[in-house]
Amino acid sequence: xxxxxxxxxxxxxxxxxxxxxxxxxxxxxxxxxxxxxxxxxxxxxxxxxxxxxxxxxxxxxxxxxxxxxxxxxxxxxxxxxxxxxxxxxxxxxxxxxxxxxxxxxxxxxxxxxxxxxxxxxxxxxxxxxxxxxxxxxxxxxxxxxxxxxxxxxxxxxxxxxxxxxxxxxxxxxxxxxxxxxxxxxxxxxxxxxxxxxxxxxxxxxxxxxxxxxxxxxxxxxxxxxxxxxxxxxxxxxxxxxxxxxxxxxxxxxxxxxxxxxxxxxxxxxxxxxxxxxxxxxxxxxxxxxxxxxxxxxxxxxxxxxxxxxxxxxxxxxxxxxxxxxxxxxxxxxxxxxxxxxxxxxxxxxxxxxxxxxxxxxxxxxxxxxxxxxxxx
Length: 376
Hints:
There is one protein chain. The protein folds into 3 domains: 2-107, 3-Layer(aba) Sandwich (Aminopeptidase), CATH 3.40.630; 139-243, Gcn5-related N-acetyltransferase (GNAT) (Aminopeptidase); 271-367, 2-Layer Sandwich (Nonspecific Lipid-transfer Protein, Chain A). 27% of the residues lie in helices and 35% in strands. It is built from 11 helices and 20 strands. The strands form 3 sheets. Strands 1, 2, 3, 4, 5, 6, 7, 8, 9, 10, 11, 12, 13 and 20 form a 14-stranded mixed β-sheet that branches. It has a 4-stranded mixed β-sheet with strand order 17-16-15-18. The protein is α+β, with helices and mostly antiparallel strands. The chain starts with a strand and ends in a 5-residue tail after the last strand.
């Protein structure tokens, strides 16, 4: 078996494995994916002696805003192994190799949407984002007030401008520009959908992506405050002028029925010191932590953290401190991104922290305002 990263002109060789493993994906979607997304992504594979691809892992790049900084990070998708090659540790090899390479490139964390949490926990991925989902029923209001139309490529710049305004309160999200929305239009079209724009007096007040492949589904409605009725009018028109309920994903600030907060995105920290440095504190901080990382050996060191109230954390890396408490790289994900409190993290991750360390860590103001609804 040979593990390697494919050259860009080889990416199409993985399509047959995708079709075999993810049989629910339609031809139109795969045409889009292999014509658009694989132009700039990275694909790792393991081949047998006959040079047949037995297993793959794909990394799709995004510009990620994290606190006061941004970086190019990767969304892990399409982790797949041929049926006759499973239970040989191939996925483990691919994950270890890709994590190592992302670390070497200086990426801060990587993320994925798991088919099952248990698959990725052994590799120190942890949930950090609960997606708000619910059912939205369209309503008929004045058709003269709200103008709804399909987005086109020329609308992408306006969509990005509105999105940047809406996402400003969040601490972690994918940065939006015209190119981002140009790709979204192609993605939605591949699933018999599109993007609906809503105007009031010639001003764009909101938009949302939708698919119509097997009944309508809406993703990420972004509307200016006070224009909730505009969204409901657009849903009403989407469903053929009917007050029909539609499943909606990533619906952050809209009313909905049957609301649930579904664990959706897992992070794997690659450079913990960089995450700490993007975080402010709610009180004076002075604590040392011995980090345990089973995959990336360079992370096995002591981080001495200091900050005055309201400041960003200052990080000093040391080789080790026998007096410092120990925490795993996985536990840090739940802590630093606000999924678990410092006290709860001990029971969740089976780590032992002294009362003084817990007191210190509770002063961290985590990067908990997350908005990540990417599909591929």
